[in-house]
UniProtKB/TrEMBL annotation:
Entries under InterPro entries matching the protein: HDACs, His_deacetylse_dom, His_deacetylse_dom_sf, Ureohydrolase_dom_sf
Name of the protein in question: Class II histone deacetylase
Listed Pfam families: Hist_deacetyl (PF00850)
Histone deacetylase domain: residues covered: 36-323
Highest taxon listed in the record's lineage: Bacteria
Family: Belongs to the histone deacetylase family.
């Protein structure tokens, strides 16, 4: 089969224009114009690093296709889709709450969603074992009728619905490790027992007043929505503890037929929109754990789609480590170049309050799942 890990990207992803701003605010008043937080830079530099190191040659590069409007309608209202198209073709603007549309963004958003669909096809048809899609604009905040937080169309949710419709899958697991709550995915599948949605996020970050562990789903979907809010300052140890003690036990009981990951590398130690301490090597370990889970449960079928991550200098190294873990290969970047500046931080220490936060989730979810975990 050749390379067993696919890599999906398109130059158009880097042309989605979010304009000027400061972090996430538009310029004006006391806000001086700057580069917007969701600029192309951190994503383009992932591709650049793969090329510069030659590691891209170890991967099967796959060109994404454009999603059809009908495929977007699997998860979004037609009126909202047409609003994004109208803004894209005219003045641009906001398609919801901080969901910026620039000239041509509609077509790029269709291609971003199509990247996720291309990943589903590549894995399901055996072209690769797993795939990383460098999709942009991101999607996990987008709800059925509006965009939120840089997200236009919910790539992950559309991909899950597509996988169910085209391949007849009945157990699809979405794991969202973006530092912000995956509210759009939760909104899409809150009463759906066929889609297990797990979001690991910094508590209270964004969107406000969402992501509580008590939000477990409703009706037949009760227990299939898992929110894991982690306290600020959580690093590698806390994330790996979460995977081992919450995600793995639930996944082993759910037995997914495919795993889709919303890979936001914005829990990294240098990110301006979060307060977490995950390092590049930590992301590599997280990906390794999820890949092992996919190999045990669903023949290795794993589709990873890029979401957030706003440190242009560091996101490429975090993403490289993830792709290394997916492929099982080592790039020429044998050591994290930023490692010296993080050595004094408690990235690999599990603090008591971090463990307690995870254990609170276990208590909530224990009404639906069995956990072989001793906790206080």
């Amino acid at each position: 089969m050749g390379a067993k890990t696919g890599f999906i990207y398109d130059e158009s992803y880097f042309w989605h224009d979010t304009g000027n701003g400061a972090l996430f605010l538009p310029p004006g008043g006391w806000i001086e114009a700057d580069e917007h937080g969701e600029s192309p830079k951190s994503k383009r530099r992932v591709k650049n690093l793969l090329e510069r190191t030659g590691f891209i040659d170890e991967l099967k590069v796959i060109k994404p296709r454009t999603a059809t409007k009908e495929e977007i309608e699997l998860n979004h209202d037609t009126s909202y889709i047409e609003r994004v198209e109208r803004l894209s073709n005219t003045t641009g603007g906001d398609a919801g709450d901080l969901a910026l549309v620039g000239a041509g963004s509609y077509e790029i958003a269709l291609l971003s969603a199509g990247g996720a669909l291309t990943g589903i096809d590549a894995v399901m048809e055996g072209k690769v074992e797993n795939v990383y899609a460098l999709t942009r604009p991101p999607g996990h905040h987008a709800e059925r009728e509006k965009g939120i937080g840089f997200c236009l169309f919910n790539n992950l949710a559309i991909a899950a619905r597509y996988a169910r419709e085209k391949y007849g899958l009945k157990r699809i697991m979405i794991l969202d490790w973006d530092v912000h709550h995956g509210n759009g995915t939760e909104n899409s599948f809150y009463d759906d027992p066929e889609i297990l949605s797990i979001s690991i996020h910094q508590e209270g970050n964004f969107p406000p007043n969402t992501g509580y562990s008590e939000k477990v789903g409703e009706g037949k979907g009760a227990g299939y929505n898992v929110n894991i809010p982690l306290p600020a300052g959580t690093g590698n140890a806390g994330y790996l503890y979460t995977l081992e003690n919450v995600v793995v036990p639930i996944a082993e009981q759910f037995k997914p037929e495919i795993i889709i990951v919303a890979a936001g590398q914005d829990a990294n130690v240098f990110d301006p929109l979060s307060h977490m301490l995950v390092t590049a090597d930590g992301y590599g370990e997280m990906a390794k754990a999820v890949k092992s889970l996919a190999e045990r449960l669903c023949e290795g079928r794993l589709v990873v789609c890029h979401e957030g991550g706003y440190s242009a200098a560091y996101v490429p190294f975090c993403t490289l480590r993830i792709i290394e873990s997916l492929s099982g290969l080592q790039s020429k970047v044998t050591e994290d170049p930023f490692q010296g500046s993080t050595q004094g931080l408690p990235t690999n220490i599990l603090a008591d309050h971090q463990k307690e936060a995870v254990n609170r989730v276990i208590k909530v979810q224990s009404q639906f799942w069995n956990f072989e975990v001793v906790y206080k």
